[in-house]
Amino acid sequence: MSPAVIFNIHLALGYVPWLLCFAAYIWPKLKSMGPIEAQRAIAALHSFRFFGLVFLIPGVTGPDLSAGFASFAAYGDFATGLLAMLALLAVARPAIFWPLTVAFNVVGMVDLVGDYYHGVVLDLPGQAGQLGATYAIPIIYVPLLMITHVAAFYLLARSRRRQLAAT
Q: Are 23 and 149 in contact (CB under 8 A)?
């Protein structure tokens, strides 16, 4: 099996255990929380996305990793992480917390979709070995990030529907 095929299998299967875990343990807990608490838990996870800057460190990734992929992934993660941290700092002020929550989820989702797009366009599976120590990020971490962004948007929409119904 070629490295590109293995990478694609890893990408696809990376979602399976997270979806199973999310459905069994995380989603029931998030649904039972209040809107702020649920979004706060999701923001806490995404606040670690500053780690994406690792794609820019020579020696951590291979020298031939596409700069287009590495820089987009690194700065998208960094921006998302900073916005998530700001949301966490603003949790006591809902007028600031909610816009920051929406912002980190929009920026984070755009980052992940953009990373998938760049990965296809720049043949990331063909360069999988160039990911070096960062290989685990798209395989293990990104599926959970994508799942929690979808959950965050669902919870935001549900909260908004409840607010509208109450008026």
A: no
Question: Which residues have CB under 8 Å from 70's CB, separation 6+?
Answer: 55, 56, 61
Of the candidates 42, 27, 48, 49, which has an alpha carbon nearest to the alpha carbon of residue 112?
A: 49
How far are the Cα atoms of 7, 30, 36, 131 from residue 3, in angstroms, in the given order? 6, 37, 42, 12
Q: What's this model's pTM, rounded to 2 decimal places? A: 0.93
| 131/35 Cα distance (integer angstroms) | 37
C-alpha closest to that of 42 among 161, 163, 144: 144
Biggest alpha carbon distance in the chain? 59
User: For 14-29, how does the pLDDT look when each residue is reduced to its tens digit (9 = 90+)?
Assistant: 999 999 999 999 999 9
Phi, psi (degrees; rounded to nearest 5) at 123: 55, 55
pLDDT of residue 141: 96
Residue among 161, 164, 155, 157 at smallest CA distance from 34: 155
Q: What is the DSSP letter of 61?
A: B
Per-residue pLDDT tens digits for 94-115: 999 999 999 999 999 999 999 9
